[in-house]
Specification:
Largest sheet: 5 strands, parallel
Shape: globular
Bound molecules: shikimate-3-phosphate
Number of helices: 8
Number of strands: 5
Radius of gyration: 16 Å
Strand content: 5-15%
Order of helices and strands: EHEHHHEHEHHEH
Length: 175
């Protein structure tokens, strides 16, 4: 079985993903870290040196490689499901879980984290909420195709993990 966690930057995909993977006895794979290790460059430097188009095509190739792994939980980059046919690939090769947050809460969470995100790092703090809510609105079309959607705002990472374990069990029982 393969599980893909999707959602906007700062939605806690890595934290929840690691917890979930360890409860399930799955391997954990963070697609961004995988990219950085494989190409020996940080995503921040990659965007500086090359461009987003090249990043997206290399990201797609890495995503497609995950189709060969089993018993793995993959935490995707915030943009991964929103390019090419990536969301279709994700749904055909695993269970997709969308960790959903309201744009305003993401903006708060990303005020301090945005420096590590090439897409957000040069925005001034005042324009961050608007950029996030515009981009989230565009991306909802893709994120919303997930098999499981969880509204994360009210829960701790531990609670989220427990809720998701139940939802995954329900989903696989139904299938
Ligand atoms: C991106 C999100 C990042 C990373 C890259 C682009 C995006 O991943 O893949 O900076 O377009 O949303 P995280 O969601 O892990 O921050």
């Amino acid at each position: 079985m393969r599980i893909y966690l999707i959602g906007y930057m700062g939605s806690g995909k890595s934290t929840v993903g690691k917890n979930l993977a360890s409860c399930l006895g799955f391997q954990f794979l963070d697609l961004d870290h995988h990219f950085e290790e494989r190409y020996r460059i940080s995503i921040l430097d990659f965007f500086d040196k090359y461009d987003e188009n090249l990043f997206r095509s290399m990201e797609r190739d890495l995503l497609h490689e995950t189709g060969a792994f089993d018993d793995v939980l993959i935490s995707t980059g915030g943009g991964t499901p929103c390019f090419f046919d990536n969301m279709k690939f994700i749904r055909e090769h695993g269970i997709a879980i969308y960790i959903r947050w309201p744009a305003g809460m993401l903006a708060e969470r990303l005020q301090n984290l945005r420096k590590k995100r090439p897409i957000l790092k040069d925005l001034d703090p005042e324009s961050l909420p608007e950029k996030i809510s515009e981009q989230l609105a565009e991306r909802e079309f893709f994120y919303g195709q997930a098999d499981i959607i969880i509204d994360a705002g009210a829960f701790s990472p531990q609670q989220l993990t427990e809720i998701l374990l139940k939802k995954i069990a329900d989903f696989t029982d139904r299938g």
